[in-house]
Amino acid sequence: MSSAHDNRIAIVIARGLARTPVSPNAVTTVVLLLGLGAGVLFATGERWLVHLAPVPFMLAMLGDHIDGNLARLTGRGSTFGHYFDHVAMACTYTAMFVGVGIGLSSSWLGVWAIPLGILAGISVAAIFSLRIGVEIKAGKEYVEQPNFLGFELEDTLYIVGPITWLGFLGPFVIAAGIGTPLFLLYVLWQSRRQIADAEKKGQSG
User: Fold this and answer.
1) Which residues span the domain enclosing 139?
2) How do residues 73-89 score in pLDDT, each as one tens digit?
3) How many domains does the chain have?
4) R_g (Cα) of the chain, nearest Å
5) Where are the alpha helices (H) located in the chain, listed in sequence order?
C-alpha cells in the first residue's frame, strides 16, 4: 500500500465512503470521467477552461488512491477492478497530455503542440501497458513505485496545476513530448529485466 501523502487523504475519504453503498469500481468510473473531462477542458484552449482543467485532473489522481483503499476497507476488491484502475489512470494521463497539446496548437508552439502531446500521451499509455504486463508475468512487487519523502513518481504530475496557472504549459508539453518517450524506453528495458529476473527465481524455486 502506498504511503504517499495524497494516499493519507484518500484513506480518510475511503473510510467515509466505506459506510455507503458506493463501490470501488464506481469511484474508478468517476476517476475516468474526471480525467477525460480534464483532457477536454485542456483541449478547448480557452483560458478560463484551461485554468479549470487541473482541478478535475488532480481530483482524478487523488481518486486513484481512493478506489484502492475503499476496496481494501470493504473487501470488495477484484481482478477486474484492479486493472480497471490502471486503465482509468492511463486514460487520464493520456487525455491530459493530448488535451494540452491540442489546446496549445494556436499558441507559439503552433503545429508542434499536437504531435508533442500525442507522443507524450501514447508513451504514457504504453508505460501503463508495460507495467500491467510485468505485474501479470512477474508479480505486484515488481511494479511498486519508489517512495521519496512520502512522494511517488506519479505524484510529480500534481505540478500540472501550478504549471497551468503560471502559464508554463508550453515548456511542459515540450518536456513531456521528449522526456516521456525516453522514459518509456527505460521502462521497456527495465520490464524485460524484471520479467527475466522473475522467471529465474521461478526456475530456481
Assistant:
1) 5-204
2) 999 989 899 899 999 99
3) 1
4) 18
5) 5-17, 24-44, 47-52, 54-74, 79-103, 113-138, 160-165, 169-204
DSSP class per residue in 64-114 = HHHHHHHHHHHT---HHHHHHHHHHHHHHHHHHHHHHHHHGGGSTTGGGHH
What local confidence, expressed as pLDDT, does residue 2 receive? Answer: 45
User: Checking DSSP bridges between strand 151-152 and strand 147-148, what pairing results, if any?
Assistant: antiparallel
The answer for residues whose C-beta is within 8 angstroms of residue 101's C-beta and 6 or more apart is: 113, 114, 115, 116, 117, 118, 120, 121, 173, 177
Read off the pTM.
Answer: 0.88
Query: So what's the pLDDT on residue 153?
Result: 66
191 touches 143 (CB < 8 A): no
In single-letter form, the type of residue at position 13 comes to I
* pLDDT per residue as tens digits for the range 7-62: 889 999 999 999 999 999 999 999 999 999 999 999 999 999 999 999 999 999 99
C-alpha separations of 182 from 73, 95, 163, 174, 186 in Å: 37, 19, 21, 13, 7
| 132 CB-side CA count, 13 A | 17
Residue 78 sits in a domain of what CATH number? 1.20.120.1760
151: left (phi over 0), alpha (psi -120 to 50) or beta: beta
* Residues 6+ away with beta carbon under 8 Å from 47: none
